[in-house]
Write a structure and sequence with these properties.
This protein has seven helices and no strands. It has about 190 residues and is mainly α. The chain is elongated.
Length: about 190
């Protein structure tokens, strides 16, 4: 059955019912279809946030693997971990952190274990925001580096995705809430 024909079938059944019954059923079907459209729009929007957060964060994870010296201790100087996070790590540890972060971000992109993966991404972005504040705050009074202010919307997006993780069902291994609500309404009809 084609998609268009399957969508018209409930409406064709209305023509065979009594007018009052048909009006009630039509009202229910319109509400159900509106809910499904809202659910799809929410799911697509949350996927867009998940995909863009992944694209943003995977670059930093790949840099840890391809240029671990810039993050770890090298030639007596401190890398990014030492400068921003106050942790001096060797290049081998940075490489391992990068590989772990890549695996974690791939699980996040796939929508696996959403509480853990979206929560982990949110915590990573919160930590980055907190350690960047000394660089961001002077930018409001004419100094500092305004580029670090991107940490605010990135954290906001990751917080929104964490709070709405049950509705993030598009291209996700976890499809519980949104599909279940549509199915339960369909079964009541």
């Amino acid at each position: 059955m084609s998609d268009e024909k399957s969508r018209r079938t409930p409406y064709l059944k209305l023509a065979r019912q009594a007018p009052c019954q048909a009006a009630l059923r039509l009202q229910f079907l319109v509400r159900l279809e509106t809910q499904m459209l809202k659910s799809n729009a929410t799911s697509y929007s949350l996927f867009a946030i998940r995909l863009s957060l992944f694209a943003f964060m995977i670059m930093w994870a790949l840099l840890k693997v391809t240029t671990p010296a810039s993050y770890g201790v090298s030639d007596g100087g401190t890398g990014i971990f030492g400068s921003f996070y106050g942790i001096n790590l060797g290049q081998g540890v940075v490489y391992g952190v990068g590989l772990a972060q890549i695996a974690f971000l791939l699980a996040f992109l796939a929508g696996v274990a959403k509480f853990v993966t979206t929560g982990g991404v949110m915590i990573m972005n919160l930590i980055t925001l907190v350690v960047s504040l000394p660089t961001i705050l002077p930018a409001f009074v004419g100094g500092g580096n305004i580029l670090f202010a991107a940490s605010f919307p990135v954290f906001g997006a990751s917080l929104a995705l964490f709070l709405l993780r049950e509705h993030d069902t598009f291209l996700s291994f976890h499809r519980k809430t949104a599909d279940a609500s549509v199915t339960s309404h369909t079964n009541q009809a």
